[in-house]
Amino acid sequence: MEKTFKAKLKKLQYFKLTFLPGFCTKLLKKELVFTKKGKLSAFLTKLLEKQKLKYNYGLKENQIKKYFKYIKLLILNN
Fold first, then answer.
1. What is the mean pLDDT of the chain?
2. What value, to the nearest 5°, has the Cα angle with vertex 32 and ends 29 and 35?
3. First-to-final CA distance of the chain
4. 13, 34, 35, 77: least surrounded by Cβ within 10 Å?
């Protein structure tokens, strides 16, 4: 139980989630929380993209790696 709770806390650091009142799990709004620094490093943007993919689509790490490889191939070919 603790592992799932900790994972949810990590995700909430990157997203500002607004739920319906009460114990409902339905989302009203989901906004990305930006860092206070002006520039984001490439590593951080990639990490945020991974977090979004995991949270929104429930993808596993292997699927995310394949996705990023596919994107790199598209960029190199164009």
1. 69
2. 145
3. 46
4. 77
For residue 15, the model assigns a pLDDT of: 63
Q: Work out the widest C-alpha separation in the chain, in whole angstroms.
A: 50
Identify the bridge partners of residue 17 per DSSP, sorted by sequence position: 30
Phi and psi at 72, nearest 5°, equal -60, -40
SS (H, E, C) the chain: CHHHHHHHHHHHHHEEEEECCCCCCCEEEEEECCCCCCCCCHHHHHHHHHHHHHHHHCCCHHHHHHHHHHHHHHHHHC
| This model's pTM is above 0.85 | no
